[in-house]
Structures
1.
Amino acid sequence: MIEFVDLNGGSEPFERIKTGIKEIDRVTGGGLVAGSAILVGGDPGIGKSTLLLQICAAVAKQNQDEGCFYISGEEAIDQVRIRAKRLSVEKSPVKLASTTELKDIIATIEKAKPTLVIIDSIQTMYLEDVESTPGSVSQVRACAYELIKLAKKKGFVLFLVGHVTKQGAIAGPRVLEHMVDTVLYFEGERGHHFRILRAVKNRYGATDEIGVFEMQDKGLVQVENPSALFLAERQGNVSGSTVFAGIEGSRPLLVEIQALVSQSGYSAPKRAVVGWDSNRLAMVLAVLEARCGFNFSAYDVYLNIAGGLKISEPAADLAVAMAVISSLSNKPLPSDMVVFGEIGLSGEIRAVTQPALRLKEASKLGFTNAIVPASFGKEKKTEGMSYYEIGNVHRLINWFN
Ligand SMILES: Nc1ncnc2c1ncn2[C@@H]1O[C@H](COP(=O)(O)OP(=O)(O)OP(=O)(O)O)[C@@H](O)[C@H]1O
Ligand SMILES: [Mg+2]
């Protein structure tokens, strides 16, 4: 028999462990929840082991906690030690082991008093009872199940590292993502030194929250002011460049959007996008053709979000449209101007969420002009900023004439 209870009753708030690394605490919704399982996914070599060793060392050092375990199935003890030295965390009382035998791990942790357990990676773990090779769906699922069950029972924070497949899913199928409480993706472009930690699922906090880090030789360093970082290499007075005032999670983020429109040598002109949705670019181009009379059929269009960031907000539509027209007409936009607004199929510019927050960030970084949707309310205005309200894309033609 089960005993049913009321929704309303005495309940304990979640116990959260602050890591002291602000970006991590932000992404997890205010700290790590005891008894929860967190999956960290990311491309090979992006810095997952580095990040988790830093988290483990930070938590262990904070309270001189003897219950922080780092178990590597991929690297030998010496490799992890060398990394720890490079990150200057070798004095932290982390308990380190290199093994893939899940039975041993479970038996050992069962007897210990763990606060935090890191499994790097779940694909290397092996349970004898399951008749398949490590990394296979049934092994991954069975190992994760055992570990998560133990985390709930003993109330420790469990981190699982998961490799991302070519299709972008962690650990092959998505089963693992359903089993855990929180899924974090660690992203970044090769050749760029900053990394974004993004919450794509969180049972204990908001999703789409991001943490920004810079990969240095001494490890991952938090970035206090990401907008400044993403705009650092921007050159003023070039055509095809706009600054989009975006929001990632709860935080405003300014990024440069670059477009290059060039005469096409192909029978089917090229459309290439880095960091944004290519369907969305196709839509913006179609709207500009249908509503403003531009013709892109003889042009290749390249779009790039500078710095290797991936953005998914429709609020970037207007900034993309302006970058494209600016490049096509070879007319630069003022370098102290930010843009945001969503474009509808009939060419209307729609309001977006949190305009005031976007503008505040822009103003903080010295921008003085903003192109905003027409429905933008006066009460949201920021002092020291000039506004151009646009209701429809056909108004853009005036801008470039
Ligand atoms: N000596 C070093 N100096 C600077 N950066 C380094 C150094 N060694 C490694 N790195 C950086 O750390 C990255 C590898 O980090 P890490 O091993 O944490 O990644 P990972 O995501 O765990 O990789 P894997 O998928 O192989 O487990 C490298 O790509 C490099 O950018
Ligand atoms: Mg690793």
2.
Amino acid sequence: MVTALEESRTTLAAHIKERARSLGFDLVGITSADPLPDHGEHLADWLSRGFHGQMAYMARKAQKAADPRAVVPEAQSVIVVGMYYRAREEEPPQGTLRGQVSCYAWGEDYHLVMGRRLEALAAYLKEKGAKTARWYVDTGPLLDRALAQRAGIGWFGKNTTIISRPYGSWIFLGLLLTDLELSCDEPAFGDCGLCALCMEQCPTGAILAPYLLDARRCISYLTIEHRGWIPRDLRPLIGNMIFGCDICQEVCPWNRTHAPTLHPEFQPRPEVATPELLPLLHITEEEFQVRFRGTAIKRTKRSGLRRNVAVALGNLRDPQAVPALVRALSDPDPIVRGHAAFWTNPCPLGRRAVHHQ
Ligand code: B12
Ligand code: SF4
Ligand code: SF4
């Protein structure tokens, strides 16, 4: 028998989901604020092996990561939202040296897009009697993917992303913690079967085993989160990727059949998906700020982006890049200088070309 209390929790949950969808979220699920002990253990092990690299905030947040009530003590429910972001690919013009930017960063920064919508959803919860409605898009300490799995959004793929049935893994996640008691969804189940394409195709071997990622080897980490020198042995494996990496998602069979996203915010801005590299190598701070305003790319800062561009230009092994790389050898930024110089070592074409300048 369904009690009146259960019915009100179910009705409230349905209203919240309806509002979330009308605000533009493609996926919404609800789970309890109970801890996630297995995930907490895995995170502790992951950190103890140093897989987080320079992401010190991961270690700082570890105590709270698997327990929503350690973050918001009065929380009863966690609303997990998802937005589908995979846009149509632009055909890059031929004949110029171009880099690749992960499709998650082609449009407006998802933190801003999701944040605006979560703010509106939080206001709705308050109207419905919530005293607490606190939202996070990466900003909090919690394990978003583990909560998303428990809220029915999708399951863990071997590449560690959450895979949803309607949109594959091309979804951003956000959390809203509330003191409202809501009826919960069933966890999502699905699996990779015998597939291991993501592990086989990862250029740096960052997926050490199913569900186990060494972030220090991941191109996404190296080009976005890692500051300073990129380990020498990994530089040639980065190819022309200058911000993030999509390979372990591109190859995933769950990601093959989706029509491009219609969200206007995630449509590619001009010259972002496959930008011309030579002008980027010597981009000024002012140009950087204007060109990448409101995009996720600002996270690398100008120095990080130019470092990545130097690596990509070296990896392309194209004589067109030589004058710009030679100029970068006397760049005031030692990181840019060093990564441009690296190119002259392992590449026979590069050594010859530099010699002839
Ligand atoms: C740190 C971080 C990174 C790091 C580390 C990635 C990682 N796999 O942990 C780096 C910089 C490398 C990174 C890269 C990317 N990231 Co990131 N990242 C985060 C962040 C901030 C924390 C992730 C975290 O807690 N890692 C800790 C480790 C321990 O997690 P884990 O390795 O996955 O382990 C878990 C599972 O594998 C599971 N597990 C362990 N063993 C087993 C066994 C089985 C059988 C199962 C089922 C599960 C399981 O338990 C663990 C704990 O939950 C989250 C946002 C957030 N707050 O959650 C975004 C987040 C995970 N990133 C996201 C995105 C989009 C990306 C990129 C795709 C961006 C890009 N294109 O460049 C890549 C994907 C690379 C990859 N294959 O993971 C999205 C993922 C969305 C999705 N569909 O899953 C998130 C959720 C951000 C968001 N708000 O949407 N990211
Ligand atoms: S994002 Fe790229 S480098 Fe990182 S695990 Fe996936 S394929 Fe490997
Ligand atoms: S590529 Fe294959 S193994 Fe990797 S996440 Fe997708 S289905 Fe799973």
